[in-house]
């Protein structure tokens, strides 16, 4: 920005009142308050503080001595972290007085800023102290060493991670073309380094969230599941608490939906096409976002799923990116993950969409079957999404089947069908689909086969090449044991 003439100042003052990025001060006698506001602008989208302008927007100028410039320089040095502040001394016509302008641009990557050790924020035309929760949120968003997911844990060992989950993520990435096939033949430290989870021999917090098997140090890797009777929280039908890595928790969440939501179906020829009361893809996308984008730095935080007779609510700790409005969130936006390392691994393993299309997918899937669009809410500390449904709103004439409780709390009935179909055999995808009675391959892979492989219940006979033309699947020892039970 260039402010060299009085006309530049007049063009900047568009009204006789202050705004969310313009502040008036009569003289530098109010420098302290002006600097607090400049700090608030830095924590927002930038702005300008003008000295020599009255509260009503009248330009009067002020005397500028050497001491004035020295005092301003000292005040700017008290901003933390250090930042570039543009200083303009604009002369008044026919006068020795000048208008002093202090201008800062947006500095998102360096936020939060403090002045004299205290953070400030701007609400409309008022400067106020920033609440601690917002300060912590901005601090977590700041990149590099300040991000919780990047912090190393010296007590964390590779043996504390789930090797099957790591290799499952690699196979998923190879299958979708986001990882080279040679990745599956590399050792675990090399894979973890490529995922940015291991640096100088030390594992970071993101590695535990993604692939951990021991959560003594990570109680926040928690999923709360509840099915309530009716439309209130007065009475439980089912109540579970599951600790695990993201892949485990995502599978547990989907199994819970299959256990407590009805399947609506229609018959096409010899085959039955099934769909949950709320579309599977919408629920899975919402759970993925909740697990990926939540704030993990609070040990007592978690993801919660509550199923009622008329709605499903999915809640996680955190908030939307501070610079994305609700309108922009719903109309399309660039992806700005809270946890870039976690999001990158989930993207490479084909779990997460990286282009900010998740919300659009949730909305379109609900609209496809005649359900209302999901509702998105935040209070600054948590985000929750509400899916409303009634059986009458499904898009086709349904025959509704209530899911019976499955034999294992984290295994969906669809996974059990895969185990039963394979048994002691080694079968191709087409053969398994034929036994179960399915014709939609993408539906079979997403709802049946991939969850079974992620749970290490089913394994491919060519794990190093998921796209092998003679690929077949068999039960693991874990899968055989579960089938016996």
From TrEMBL:
One family name in Pfam for this protein: SLFN_AlbA_2
Region of interest: Disordered: 466-485
Compositionally skewed regions (Basic and acidic residues) per UniProt: 474-485
Organism: Paraprevotella clara YIT 11840
InterPro entries given in the database record: Fic-like_C (IPR049514), RecG_C_sf (IPR038475), Schlafen_AlbA_2_dom (IPR007421), Schlafen_AlbA_2_dom_sf (IPR038461)
Domain called Schlafen AlbA-2: residue spans: 18-128
PANTHER family: GLPR-RELATED TRANSCRIPTIONAL REPRESSOR, SCHLAFEN ALBA-2 DOMAIN-CONTAINING PROTEIN
Taxon lineage: Bacteria, Pseudomonadati, Bacteroidota, Bacteroidia, Bacteroidales
Membrane-crossing segments per the record: none
Top-level taxon in the UniProt lineage: Bacteria
Descriptive protein name: Divergent AAA domain protein
Span of domain Filamentation induced by cAMP protein Fic-like C-terminal: 413-476
């Amino acid at each position: 920005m260039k402010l060299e003439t009085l006309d530049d100042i007049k063009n900047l003052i568009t009204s006789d009142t202050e705004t969310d990025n313009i502040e008036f001060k009569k003289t530098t006698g109010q420098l302290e308050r002006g600097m607090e506001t400049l700090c608030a602008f830095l924590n927002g989208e930038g702005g300008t503080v003008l000295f020599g302008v009255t509260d009503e927007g009248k330009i009067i100028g002020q005397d500028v001595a050497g001491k004035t410039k020295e005092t301003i320089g000292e005040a700017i040095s008290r901003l933390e972290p250090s930042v570039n502040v543009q200083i303009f001394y604009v002369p008044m016509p026919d006068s020795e007085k000048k208008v002093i302008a202090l201008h800062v641009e947006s500095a998102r990557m360096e936020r939060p800023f403090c002045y004299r050790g205290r953070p400030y924020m701007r609400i409309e035309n008022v400067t106020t102290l920033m609440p601690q929760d917002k300060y912590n949120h901005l601090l977590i968003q700041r990149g590099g060493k300040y991000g919780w997911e990047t912090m190393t844990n010296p007590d964390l060992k590779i043996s504390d991670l789930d090797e099957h989950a790591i290799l499952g993520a690699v196979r998923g990435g190879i299958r979708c073309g986001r990882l080279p096939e040679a990745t599956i033949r590399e050792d675990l430290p090399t894979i973890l380094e490529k995922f940015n989870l291991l640096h100088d021999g030390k594992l970071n917090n993101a590695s535990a969230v993604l692939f951990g098997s021991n959560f003594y140090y990570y109680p926040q890797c928690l999923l709360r599941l509840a099915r309530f009777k009716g439309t209130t929280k007065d009475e439980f039908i089912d109540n579970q608490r599951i600790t695990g890595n993201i892949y485990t928790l995502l599978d547990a969440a989907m199994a819970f939906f299959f256990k407590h939501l009805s399947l609506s179906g229609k018959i096409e020829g010899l085959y039955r096409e099934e769909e949950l009361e709320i579309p599977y893809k919408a629920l899975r996308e919402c759970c993925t976002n909740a697990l990926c984008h939540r704030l993990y730095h609070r040990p007592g935080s978690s993801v919660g799923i509550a199923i009622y007779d008329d709605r499903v609510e999915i809640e996680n700790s955190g908030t939307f990116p501070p610079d994305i409005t609700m309108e922009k969130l719903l109309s399309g936006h660039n992806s700005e993950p809270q946890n870039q390392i976690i999001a990158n691994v989930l993207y490479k393993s084909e779990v997460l969409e990286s282009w900010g299309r998740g919300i659009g997918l949730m909305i379109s899937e609900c609209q496809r079957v005649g359900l209302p669009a999901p509702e998105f809410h935040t209070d600054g500390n948590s985000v929750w999404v509400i899916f409303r449904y009634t059986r009458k709103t499904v898009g086709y004439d349904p025959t509704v089947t209530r899911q019976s409780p499955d034999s294992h709390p984290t295994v969906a009935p669809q996974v059990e069908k895969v185990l039963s179909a394979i048994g002691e055999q080694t079968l191709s995808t087409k053969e398994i689909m034929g036994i179960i009675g399915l014709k939609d391959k993408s539906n079979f892979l997403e709802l049946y086969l991939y969850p079974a492989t992620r749970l290490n219940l089913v394994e491919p006979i060519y794990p190093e090449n998921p796209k092998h033309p003679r690929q077949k699947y068999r039960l693991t020892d874990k899968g055989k044991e579960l089938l016996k039970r």
